[in-house]
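User: Fold both of these, please.

Assistant: Here is the first one.
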Amino acid sequence: MNDPNPQRVAELRALITEFLTKRRDEKLEKLTPEDPKRVELLQQFIPANWLGDAARRAGQIQAVTHSLKPVHPDAKGTNLYSPPNGLSAIELVGTHCLGDNFAGDVVGNAAALDVYKFLKLSLLGRSFLELACEANVDLAAVLNDDPAKASDWLIAFASLTDSRGHLTSHTLAKQLYWATGDDPHDNASYHLLSPLYASSLAHRVFEALQDDRFSEAAKAAREARKANTFDERPVREYPQLAIQQLGGTKPQNISQLNSERRGNNSLLASLPPVWRSSDLKPLLNTESMFSSFSRRPEVRASLKELLAFLKADPKRNQETRNTRAAMVNELIDAFLQFTAELHILEPGWSQTPQCHLSDAECRWLDPEGVAQTDTELQRPAPTDVAERISAAFANWLNGRLRDPLPLGDSEFLEWRNAMQAQIKADEREGAYAD
């Protein structure tokens, strides 16, 4: 074993003295000069006394990177300390992305959190916890002059990263079956997972959001954007950000990092994008919605591809039918996307004198606006709107393909049925439910 480095020992001792002095003085400020507790407090913060007590209390807390209590505050089970540099690198964002500069968390008795604050002290980029885990001789020399006691205290501090007992879950913890095989009916084709809260990753996300939203540099960048001037820092926005409170009025009961965040845990919006276009306008002064639909580049491209395929007179077999159906489905998808975009418009646009669309098209593209008119006029709403729209789509597609192809009733029925089937599928998923 190497001998202690006197300079490192002195630097470590100075850090410990500063830490204990600050904590002691903060407590003394709350006491009157005559309070008898002052003598007890002064004795408590003598380095040898405090360090021995901290080593004893270290068993009441556990250093973690993945914790259970954020899943449910009353859950009791395994927490894990898995440093990012020991995790497998995958393409998805995870704790492994944090590298060596990550914030470790601690769970357990909130009254012993000061022990972890002590172990977070660092010298030359190395925390006391890291030094304890390595049985660092310099730190041992500072802890106690008795090598046996110093070794015991190092072991006690290093034990913060150890798992407590056997790996266990809890009735209040989340569990899920993860398919690992090809047969969903085979119980052996699943792993039972008990997901933990990635505390270190959540804290990094929180810090990034706080910096992007409230830092002086971020404020300056937003001011530059308002003034239309240049700023090197990009402006980052987080629309529909939600905050989940963990721990209620006692966030420290969840974990140390949760306490530092005051229980605030940011939830980024996990929503499909809503299409918004500056060119999106109501279909006014036109007799049919298919006039606008036909002008779309993707629709023109799909029509051109379908027409070329049919003009080539492919063999009449299942492969041909499948290819043709796939091309028609592209047009159906484009039509339903066209519909969804117009649903974003302010309801009621189809009820203005400038709108010349048929009743079915008005009801299809502006359902809320027409429903309001139905209520005002006390007229019943028809139940065959989807059928009429499907027939209109089939007529439109036949019309676009009929010259030069000889299309008739059989093709009309195929296009109509394909559209009706897709609309019903969307209705089952709630896309066009009333």
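And the second sequence with its predicted structure:
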Amino acid sequence: MTICEALKTAPTLQVPAMLSKLGVSINLRPRQRLALGRDAEHIYIVKDGVLMLESLPQPTARQILDIYYPGDVVRGHLVPNISGVNLMAANQGEVVRIGLSRLEQPLHNDAAARDWLDCAFANQYPRRLLHLATIGTLTGEERVVSMLIEFAYRLGEGGYEGARSFDIPLSRTDMADYLSLNADTLSRIMSRLRQNGVLGLAGRGRAYAPKFEALRAMSPLAETIQALHGTAV
């Protein structure tokens, strides 16, 4: 098994101890922003919570370009040079910030940590392509369902008779901006899913799918989502 395969199938995406020791841990509160730019001399490794890459190219236009889960790595140099780009915590979390100058020699000496970092970047790329396919080819309802399935795999656990409960770390506005939907349209879709019995809410930021297979059946990308996200938990 390669390092990349091991990363995908690990029970948790634990950050190598060597990398944690090199950096500074930052506890994040919801909506807290982190310094990010193409000239940034550091990376962020997500240990807990969910981060969002936000773009504000115009005062009246906002887009969530990407989201990052535990085990993901953010480097400013790899972020497009778009006006108003911010890195923001969607909820409470923790990141490790590591200066690039501190990485070079340790990564040269530690092949396992170097492979972990390379594969963390590599595993994020196909997810970005999947997101483009989601917003470019699916209906509004299919986009929302696909996002919920992703959360269910990344941030959920199985329950009785095929049920699955999971966190929804993004606000309705954030989800709408990530899926290129109007916020009112997103709310109507969520209400319709609840009325149809495929989605329930279990408190603020928490949801459940009584019959998870029924929810999966509503997205033509369910199998791809499972392949990219289901094995990472």
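Residues 111-137 form the longest helix (27 residues).
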